[in-house]
Amino acid sequence: METPLKDSVLDFYIDDQGVTPWTLSVASGYNLLRDPHHNKGLAFTEKERDAHYLCGLLPPTVISQDLQVKRLLNNLREYQVPLQKYMAMMDLQESNEKLFYKLLIEHVEELLPVVYTPTVGEACQKYGSIFKRPQGLYISLKEKGKILEVLRNWPERNIQVIVVTDGERILGLGDLGCQGMGIPVGKLSLYSALGGVRPSACLPVTIDVGTNNERLLNDEFYIGLRQKRATGQEYTELVHEFMGAVKQNYGEKILIQFEDFANHNAFDLLEKYSNTHLVFNDDIQGTASVVLAGVVAALKLVGGTLADHTFLFLGAGEAGTGIAELIALEISKRTSTALEDARKKIWLVDSKGLIVSSRKESLQHFKKPWAHEHEPIKDLIDAVKDIKPTVLIGTSGVGRTFTKDVVEAMAAINEKPIILALSNPTSQSECTAEEAYTWTKGRAIFASGSPFNPVEYEGNVFVPGQANNAYIFPGFGLGLIMSGTIRVRNDMLLAASEALAAQVTQENFDKGLIYPPFTNIRKISANIAAKVAAKAYELGLATRLPQPEDLVKHAESCMYSPSYQNYR
């Protein structure tokens, strides 16, 4: 079996110098064409074809990487079904890694919805049916007691970031078990494309403890364990073994990103490991950071300070309480008031109605800080009319819950109501962009979790923003990695939010946007990475010393390049 030379070694070469594509020996011929790390397809020069035994294995023409990108984009645009585009992109990633990333980086606004939400949701639902070859590591209950050995089966040694899921709460689609692997694979593609983390330094992991999804358990194509979910001690011991094995195998500075765990596990895991590992939960912390950035940016359109506004959430799970807490932390920081007082500006509605103090005994622990003194209210529309929020945020995972009555009530209370319908995928969004703009007569400041097309209303074109976590986590992760940070702290999340909000230009505001366009995402990520790293150095949590003088330039210099290298 061949063991490829790690990309980290190749990175020491300057791009315009020749490099040798090593496997166990020099990769050549048929094997070179099937090595995704080194394959260049028709872009191999005649000299490279002679040197690496490729003559006759390729058609005679030599084309540039740019022409390859153009051809592939044309082919993708021929597909009418988003899932077909997703499968084509995954095939490309498995056959020509650099071309995949160059295509994704140069056409990120068009292809982000293909490789991630909303299409990745459908891909996870059908993962067993479309499964071709494994991506990432599958750690099931069968591997209990030998997880360290399983980690060592992965061919790359210099791992810097792991995205791990147990598949219990995939987007707004529920328990997809082992088929949730599409989420870590997709997230890590974005770490490389948007944040510049080397693909070989990324490891997708799915922890398979079974599924409670009867449809999957009865699906002959399901690829996971066919049993009900393990819970309690059995679950805890497996995850704990995994966390210990990761640290033992990869060291103190390995970033572990928890993704799409159910609420009851997500909060517990984050709290349990935040002081012993470098851990980050994108659903709780990443979502909070990107939403706070949008709210801070929106203040330039509506006026006032953060503390002047009143926030009402529909949804009190990981995302809702995570966002609420970060907003409260920012209010507390800006006004020098107690966190408990800052929380009083923020109200949450769950499936049982407004969270109030009379419900406190029956609430889950993460909801209790939001139980304020108020009469019980069952329906969202009544909460809007009574609380009179200036900002309405949806994290419920239930589509069409921002009804016409709710949105019109927001418009009656506010000249420019801020409405954020954040649930994914598109089908689960609390309202559409068209509904938000139409029902507020074009006055809403709107953003969603999944993308919506521009909306024309009474001669004006409104471009909805997307509160996509991809704005935050790639740059956030890069900042942690390049500074050698050993723990995540809330001040780093606030720094990331402020850095993102600062990237919104007046031109963006003139279009009603509260997020910058994704076309500049690598520049945005570099600025976020710099602010996060600076905060880590300030807090004494960074280990890569001395601190670089220009952290933005340092971040840019650390970023992975998808351009082909010349082979000797």
Automatic annotation (TrEMBL):
Annotated signal sequence range: none
Binding site for a divalent metal cation: E259, D260, D283
Cofactor annotation comment: Divalent metal cations. Prefers magnesium or manganese.
Sequence ranges assigned to domain Malic enzyme NAD-binding in this UniProt record: 284-537
Keywords recorded for this protein, A-Z: Metal-binding, NADP, Oxidoreductase
Catalytically driven reaction(s): oxaloacetate + H(+) = pyruvate + CO2; (S)-malate + NADP(+) = pyruvate + CO2 + NADPH
Residues bound to (S)-malate: R169, N424, N468
One GO BP: malate metabolic process
Keyword Metal-binding assigned: yes
Domain of life: Eukaryota
Any GO MF annotation of the entry: malate dehydrogenase (decarboxylating) (NADP+) activity
Annotated GO CC locations: chloroplast
Keyword Electron transport tagged: no
Domain called Malic enzyme N-terminal: residue spans: 93-274
Active site: Y116, K187
Assigned protein family: Belongs to the malic enzymes family.
Name the UniProt record assigns to this protein: Malic enzyme
Native source organism of the sequence: Cucumis sativus (Cucumber)
